[in-house]
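Encode chain A's predicted structure.
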Amino acid sequence: MAYTQNPLTFEVKNTADRISPRQLAIIQASAKLLSESGSSGLTVKNLAKEMRFSEAALYRHYTSKEAIIVSLLEYLASELENQFNNLDKEKSASERFLDYNQCQIDYFKANSNFVIIAFSDGLFDNTEKINLALSGIFTVLQKHLIPIIMDGKLDNTFPMEIHSEKIVHILLASFKLHMVKWKISNYTSDIEATTKDIAKTMLSIFGKKN
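Encoded structure for chain A:
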């Protein structure tokens, strides 16, 4: 997934100010359908049935399936932004990296229906609006990881000679793989223990001696 924004300057609008309680319920129901049945399962008919109201009532909140998906993706980006903003920036780079991974685990364990949305490629039709919203999620993940890597280069947590963006891609690809495997296991594998182990392994590979 390519990003279109500079991750260090990317700003996410707080969706809580723009989404009504009913729209939030629609987003959550949409995530449930996507997690259970994939993109083909997310239809206006199925969503209206899940929400227990008419298709016409659904269209009063969103004009199309695309609008629902875009809103869902923007909501997820905003949620992740809020999670990462709570990280303690005074800790060492290695501690912040472990906290960064734990932050994602905590969120997706509490919101497992969003795993397939954040980490599965080819789930949605490639419309311009959907692609832009998808890139926003990846940009948020980068935005909060790049400063950790840059600070880590100063204390040998990460190698100075490797471009920060390349390290980001390696770390996020590893995290994505384990999240997808967790989804395939029907969320029965110990994703928290696995992710902690992988994070510590990555620090060791990149040079941090624990």
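The chain has nine helices and no strands.
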